[in-house]
Task: structure prediction
Amino acid sequence: MRANTERTPAVSGPTMAALMLAVFTVSIGYGVVLPLLPYLIERLLGAGREAAQVPRHTGLLTAVYTLSLFLFAPMWGRLSDRHGPRGVLLVGLIGFGVTMLVFAFVESLAAIYAERFTSGMFAAAVTPVAAALGNFAMTEHGRARRLSFVSMAGIAGFLLGPMLGVFITRFAADLFTLAMPAGSVAIPLAATALLAFLVACAVAFAVPSGEDHDWSQETAGAPVDKTAWLVPKLLILTFIASVGIGVFEVGLALRGKQELGLTPYQIAAMFTECSLVMFVMQAIVFSPWVKPDTTRWLIAPALAVLAAGLFLVPRASNFTLMLVVVGTVAASAGILSPILTYWISAKAGSAQGWQLGRQTAAASLGVTVGSAAGGLLFNVTAMPGASFIVTAGLTMMGFLLSLGLPNLLALPSGAERVAS
Result:
């Protein structure tokens, strides 16, 4: 396999910073809404709502956003490969900001569904393109660290999003003496829109236009890796892990609100813990002391731990036990996500935007299925915790699928790199 790092010079520091800010922005836009969704839906439906309506709409609204990512990420990745990344990133960030700003003050359930879909469509232009551009480095270790930086920027956005959504709303209400209704997302969405516009300006100045680079020929002439058939298997594992994450995210908000009686601050704290643990685990996995090639051995154990954590979620009966389970699930997810991204990139040849767009699509489809299942199966009385149990079983199937991967993913002897 000819490493893609041989064809493009390393990305500059300002460019890398702009890419990380772009991913951070779309992630914070997702994280800022999720903990407030049950409260927002409850208010919009009114007093005459049925008990099952809140979890159903919570799951479906989350699924609509990730479904949009699934539909559009490969398209944006292909456009980036052919025409360069800057234009795609700018369209994504500006469109994301406009949709969040327009819908920040809309108070109808149908409009919220439209906002989730359109925001997801533009967010799909940011993450895979930033990862593909950030992938360019002179060594395998440098490439792994850059991919990890982009992923960690996304986690940092999700880490800060839930708490910021709660605290920005409370701060604005106190400062301007506003009577904000429960579950209001107007102020957090408007703040995120402003951030998106500012980051778009940074991208316009820091990311190369690509006018001196023939992107279309690079994609057309991409070398075909003899082990390219491994990518579908890695995409399946990405999908399975993402189903677990989708079920977990929706179930965390619903279980905290409806079964454990937790406050919005406690629910936001669990989401924050989840993102913080994922952030730390990624920093460890792709630290200078860990060779990127050895990360292939961590895929199967991480899937096994994820399955165990999902199985234990409905058995955590209080806030403290929930924090323990959240840490377990987050640790395994924090290991899986960047490792799968790294190995898909390693097998992508020249078509980085296309393959990483496909991974974003697989991950988004998984979160879509998981989010919908988390909401629709939440009130199944015949099997308490049905969504978590079913997803734990699916994750164990992924564990079995991954058992032979370490040997299959082993890099050819000529592909080894000296760590930077």
In short: The radius of gyration is 21 Å.
